[in-house]
Amino acid sequence: MANRERVLAALEHRQPDRVPYQVALTQRMRARMVEATGDPHFDAGLQNCLTVLSTEPSDGWREVAPDIWEDQFGVRWNRSVDRDIGVVCNRVITPDNVEEVTFPDPLDPSRFAGYPTRPQDVGDRFIVASLGFSLFERAWTMAGMDVLLMAMVDDKPFANRLLDRILEFNLRVIESACRYAIDAMQFGDDWGMQRGLIMGPRLWREFIKPRIRQMYGLVKSKGKFVLIHSCGKVDGVFPDLIECGLDVFNPFQPEVMDVFEVKRRYGDRLTFYGGISTQRTLPFASVEEVRAEVRRLLEEIGRDGGYIAAPSHAIPDGVKPENVLAMMDILQNQ
Q1: Is residue 120 scored above 90 in pLDDT?
Q2: In which element (H, E) is residue 240 found?
Q3: What is the pTM of this model?
Q4: The 87-88 sheet, strands edge to edge
Q5: In Å, how far from its chain's centre is CA 143?
Q6: Which residue from 299, 294, 289 is spatially nearest to 312, judged by alpha carbons?
Q7: pLDDT at position 205
Q8: 117, 181 in Cβ contact below 8 A?
């Protein structure tokens, strides 16, 4: 099988010849791996099974002050510590200006530069268009986490209008992206903490579920697969996500859910993507413990398809390079 065929088999709950995998690293961890291996092209040697394409416009980020980056929505991120994402340091939307704030152009053609236009252009990898900060995250980064969560309780018109404006933007991006020869769309929207949903299941079902149902439904109507990246303990809404049309759940964190039990309960309806611990195993385990954990995940979670092996997040700085190499050895030599 080619890598794309392996991913398709996994998503169709068929047993591939080997479990597909995807490994991402933070900027600082990538630099450490380059230093440890002496290979400036370490990333290319990962031989990942997915190609993830951005839906950001070409001018979507600009540095407006030292280590302060402004995104396409006008949100500013302090990246002096976290080089990959950063910390929000301004507020764009309030209840008073929610109708007036100008959103970026969802149809900007630069969002889709380099996208394959024909199936024969896809190649060996499974092609994913990624729409990050897709709903809840986009809303809180623009309005403030505290403001949004309080509005879900005591200013519902504001919360609904903000989320609806984001939904309208997203639907136009999805419509455009799905005209290309992509296999799937991935939405990034962290709803969880280590112990459960940030806003709780009742408010999640009131504010998030109806809107993701529209987003996922549009993707499925175009014949594409739907992926969600949502950190934290969100397995309580897996039945809701299945109902909305979700195909693949990531990051599948073993720190917050029993990945083996979750696969047993939902593995005939969801494909899980992740599972290799970035909070415990990769930073703290021995090389042999890493090998054993990855083997067990491949053998048990990967049985009968429904699994894309991966670290449960982009590998952070502080992980032992020898553990990354041990993981890659098992993934690449199934």
Answers
A1: no
A2: helix 238-244
A3: 0.96
A4: 62-65, 68-70, 76-78, 87-88
A5: 22
A6: 294
A7: 98
A8: yes
